[in-house]
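REQUEST ID: PR-0412
SUBMITTED BY: lab tech R.K.
PRIORITY: routine
TASK: structure prediction, single protein chain
INPUT:
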Amino acid sequence: TIYSRRTNPFNPARIKEIIRQIKFGSDLSEAERKELEQLVADNADSFALTLKEVVPIPGAALNLNVPENAKFNLRMHQRPLTPEQSKFYNERINDMLNADIIERAPPELIRCTATTVIAQRAH
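STATUS: complete
OUTPUT:
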């Protein structure tokens, strides 16, 4: 399998897939491109092909330090999502849930809501 960052990060098939997914500039010479591909291959253990392959930083924690009496907006002012947007969000959320990056929160723990914006990448 190519999804072997933790067990075999330098698997040739995995390296090939990493290089396939990287967009190299068209202005590179063949020698420069080969040099970059070798750099990627030499550092293949730094690349994750899926969210599941992202390695958590030991001891890392997010502390927002929100005062107990802080008041936040609990009403959503979001335009309805198109079916395509909804599908996109649901797939990303399921990926993050399956990778244990996020977890479901019961409604009684929700203290703030905000609209979600999908922005197209510039490339």
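NOTES: The mean pLDDT is 89.
REVIEWED BY: pending
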